[in-house]
């Protein structure tokens, strides 16, 4: 159904000058980061049944990549304080997938400066993972690129996820893109960590990234947050501007206001390999009960931090407090 | 705060070739239709205190127009079955505004074929209303234009709100725009009743409407629904494409998935006459309690009807049933 109604004009969107309603862009790939980004709301304490439900849903929905969590350094983060998806040990992943790999690729995120990558990232031949995603702030680019090289040398697909892009200065970004273009990374991601970006900014960044990566064969990706109810819209804007790697999460589960909902995204894409029905089933059976345990998704405090182009940490703190709906006090504090 | 952060490049957005972050488009006007569209969720049974709260909030927020409800024909709709905002008698409005007009203009909606307009719409000199908004389906255009003429002759500003635009054939729309361009109407509204439109469709319609109205002095407006979490994004897309009349509602209150939230829209606009704080205060004090009485806003069933480009009536029915979260059964029924 979603397929028949999906309205993207693929050729026009791809900048090829065409205008067809009946084709799709096969290069577009969806990465589900439900367990990884959602884990930021419960210190990665999902039980196996939840992670298996997400895994089976992604498989059935035709999702291309699934990310489970982080490869956090256990010397920095104690396993006593976090759930197992903060560390993503190989055995934990194997237990979820039942020991059998299939065509869906498996990802793990490695935070710059918080990962003992030389030690904890195994050679690909000894790992269930296919892809290492290196998350970095602009000032950590040298470390991040060393991590990318390490992972690439070990045989993985790699991505570099440039976080908090909405507060990166143009001049710094230009220099970063220059070195990234010369690096081993496979895909460079635009990450709107604060959920503060508007469509014109997304468009301009997509064009800037595409231009900087031209001729390198690298892909561009997008990861959005829903602080201003623009996560899905900004993902569409990125598609229109040629971005082919799309992060999404089931029911939008993710830090704070959450991410681009997978079920919405599949409604837009037309590639027949995607199927929305398993996602709806999973939301009904697994995510509705989860909403009684943890909160995520758009609320007014996230809108306020998004509009201010601020990290959502203060809004997250408010939502976990005794006065989660004291919008006015929060607003007055934030604009002080 | 929102003002300082608002990111619209006004001149570029207006197609003037500029690229300024520090100006705004003074022609943009916000119309609050909280009470009118929200009334579709409770048969217009809002008590006076609620309507007064919305009125005072809109005033304080700098909203340009406020709409209270419909001028429904009492021979068709019994006042025993509906609240007073289905009929918007002059005395009811006067009681809300305290008998005193101010710079915020007051609107009422008149549905084609469901309004005894010759009788129920008074001459403007005898009315508190400034603007009559005629809601019409494509096949009712002749009636709607007669209603527009009647209202214009009586001294009102007028709008023509073309509903369910996502199922109107291009050829029919072209003919409709031809006659509308020659009519007395002041503003022609694009109404995405089903919340099914994507940004590229919004862009194309805005351009088509603007082109058809060129040289007539008529304004273009947009009214969106949030079935696919695109109400705000599509309103921004319309702004970028030159649309100056924007419908919004406090907390997104409106039929089904609701409308473009006023608090998000004010975050995007930069005109210093708008103030977000009173809106946040009203949401906290009035709308959070209201959410315990009536439901509105994005849920999966509305997403499904939006993706299918269908009227939300089946989703509304589901949400009011004993199984509001049986997404799979609903999905299977809708794609049958």
Describe the overall structure.
- 2 copies of one chain form a homodimer.
- By secondary structure, chain A is an alpha/beta fold.
- Helix content of chain A is 40%, strand content 13%.
- Chain A is globular.
- The longest helix of chain A has 15 residues, at 199-213.
- In chain A, helix 4 (48-61) runs antiparallel to helix 12 and helix 13 packs antiparallel against helix 14 (313-319).
- Chain A has helices at 2-5, 10-13, 34-38, 48-61, 90-97, 117-120, 141-153, 170-181, 199-213, 231-240, 262-268, 277-290, 300-307, 313-319, 327-334, and strands at 29-32, 65-70, 105-111, 131-136, 157-162, 187-191, 219-223, 245-248.
- Chain A is built from 15 helices and 8 strands.
- An 8-stranded parallel β-barrel of chain A has the order 1-2-3-4-5-6-7-8, surrounded by 4 helices.
- Residues 1-19 of chain A have low confidence and may be disordered.
- Chain A folds into 2 domains: 24-290, Alpha-Beta Barrel (TIM Barrel); 300-334, no CATH class.
- At the A-B interface, helix 9, helix 10, helix 11, helix 12 and helix 13 of A face helix 9, helix 10, helix 11, helix 12 and helix 13 of B.
Please outline what is shown here.
With 336 residues, the first copy, chain A, is of the alpha/beta class.
Give the SSE layout:
The structure is a homodimer of 336-residue chains.
Chain A: H1 2-5, H2 10-13, E1 29-32, H3 34-38, H4 48-61, E2 65-70, H5 90-97, E3 105-111, H6 117-120, E4 131-136, H7 141-153, E5 157-162, H8 170-181, E6 187-191, H9 199-213, E7 219-223, H10 231-240, E8 245-248, H11 262-268, H12 277-290, H13 300-307, H14 313-319, H15 327-334
